[in-house]
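Title: Comparing notes on inverse folding

I've been comparing how different people in this forum approach sequence design from structure. To keep things fair, I'm posting one structure and asking everyone to reply with a full sequence. Here's the target:
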């Protein structure tokens, strides 16, 4: 009888053994969130990075996935206690807390070429200002396109998980990009070679380049820092701890160059503040907000930023000089203001108004806002939530994708004056069509087919007829040198 009780107890303990959360993480999470939970294609999963996510919300996210992200749901693969164990695991501090300080940054730097010894002219015949870079996430490559004939010049590998848009120097010669795991690369576009690399953090959001071409500023999730580098060779200038006056530290959502202001603007993830960081090395100027900004957008004159929080029902208009919110934006769902664009629109009285428009990550709509009154002019229904909205000053159309949902293969073409959808393109039925970019003249519109065996499809931007398609590995962002350096009104800056 005693042996039977012992055997029963052993079987019971086996039957009800707690799930092995670390093994579950390695099986289901590691490929996107990286070893040690430091972040890769997915975000860092450490307690300090989850300050705005409550544990019940984390359980729901693991079970059901997250809208407007690549995070799938696991409720059909994992039991409830396994999901709960994973949630506990990501809120548990690691045995060895990660760090990446000035010494690590300096030690990581690799100089591949002395840029001063390289020829100061392109090695190709294409117009260097009409070059377009295509980021291929599928196998971590960049393709360099001749924008006049839409043919590849070269294709080369990048480090893993390039994230955020490449940024160019004013002359278009050098381009910088960041990877999720913190590597900043300087590439000589005229000589088609890597110049230098420096690792600035463990989980990095994006990079900005000063309009004078002298410095580069990187935004980190982990550690909570902004890192300024010398643009010539990516040597370290300064590590800026992101700490509020009350002592709380924060991840950085994004940093962008604000060229007319001779400064950078950074939005903080965990503190309701925006920081202005002068080029000249003066301390950051905090602008205290009523709510966080998860992404934002500059007006054409860089006097205002228009931003929104993922959790707030309204957006904010912040006047940068005064550091005050001067208006709210009536934007439903989850606006993606980082992908907003502006143009001149004539109202029913023939008066020209500057308007901006934003896609929506949650609802099927594009919202058009009057930039004088900050009131909505029109809400344009779409076939589903979208990620990107793009145009060009030479084009009468704005192109809006439907990145999420069953209609992800549709690309809407919107007339910028009637504010109506005038065409629904379906480049490849059943495959995700996303992120339009134009050549420097607005002649071609480039659409990504975001599949492993995907393509870049080139359209005549006026007739909307397909010109050609180039096979690519899950292409996403496309970045034209002229449009980015000259701040085309139809693309992000």
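Reply #1:
Here's my take.
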């Amino acid at each position: 009888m005693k042996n039977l009780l012992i055997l029963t107890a052993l079987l019971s303990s086996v039957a009800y053994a707690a799930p092995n959360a670390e093994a579950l993480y390695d099986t289901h999470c590691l490929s996107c969130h990286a070893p040690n939970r430091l972040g890769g294609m997915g975000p860092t999963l450490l307690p300090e990075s989850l300050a705005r996510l409550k544990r019940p919300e984390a359980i729901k996210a693991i079970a059901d996935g997250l809208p407007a992200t690549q995070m799938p749901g696991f409720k059909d693969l994992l039991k409830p206690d396994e999901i709960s164990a994973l949630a506990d695991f990501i809120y548990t501090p690691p045995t060895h807390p990660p760090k990446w300080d000035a010494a690590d940054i300096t030690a990581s730097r690799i100089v591949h070429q002395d840029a001063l010894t390289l020829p100061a002219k392109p090695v190709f015949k294409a117009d260097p200002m009409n070059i377009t870079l295509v980021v291929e996430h599928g196998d971590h490559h960049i393709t360099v396109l001749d924008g006049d004939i839409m043919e590849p010049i070269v294709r080369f590998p990048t480090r893993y998980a390039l994230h955020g848009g490449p940024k160019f120097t004013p002359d278009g010669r050098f381009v910088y990009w960041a990877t999720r795991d913190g590597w900043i690369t300087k590439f000589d576009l005229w000589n088609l070679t890597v110049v230098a690399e420096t690792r600035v953090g463990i989980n990095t959001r994006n990079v900005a380049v000063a309009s004078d071409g002298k410095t580069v500023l990187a935004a980190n999730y982990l550690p909570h820092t902004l890192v300024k580098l010398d643009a010539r060779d990516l040597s370290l200038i300064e590590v800026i701890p992101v700490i509020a006056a009350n002592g709380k530290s924060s991840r950085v959502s994004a940093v962008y160059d604000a060229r007319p202001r001779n400064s950078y603007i950074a939005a903080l993830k965990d503190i309701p503040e925006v920081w202005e960081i002068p080029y000249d090395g003066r301390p950051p100027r905090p602008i205290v907000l009523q709510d966080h900004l998860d992404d934002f957008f500059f007006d054409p004159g860089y006097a205002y930023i228009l931003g929104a929080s993922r959790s707030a029902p309204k957006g904010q208009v912040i006047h940068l000089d005064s550091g005050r919110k001067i208006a709210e934006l009536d934007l439903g769902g989850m606006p993606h203001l980082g992908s907003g664009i502006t143009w001149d629109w004539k109202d029913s009285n023939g008066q020209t108004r500057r308007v901006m428009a934003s896609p929506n990550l949650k609802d099927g709509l594009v919202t058009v806002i009057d930039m004088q009154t900050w009131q909505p002019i029109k809400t344009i229904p779409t076939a589903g939530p979208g990620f990107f909205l793009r145009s060009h000053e030479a084009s009468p159309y704005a192109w809006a994708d439907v990145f999420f949902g069953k209609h992800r293969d549709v690309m809407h073409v919107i007339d910028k004056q009637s504010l109506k959808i005038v065409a629904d393109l379906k480049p490849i039925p059943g495959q995700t069509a996303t992120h339009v970019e134009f050549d420097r003249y607005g002649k071609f519109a480039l659409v990504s087919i975001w599949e492993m065996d995907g393509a870049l499809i080139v359209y005549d931007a006026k007739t909307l007829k397909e010109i050609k398609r180039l096979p690519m590995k899950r292409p996403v962002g496309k970045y034209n040198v002229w449009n980015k350096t000259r701040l085309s009104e139809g693309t992000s800056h």
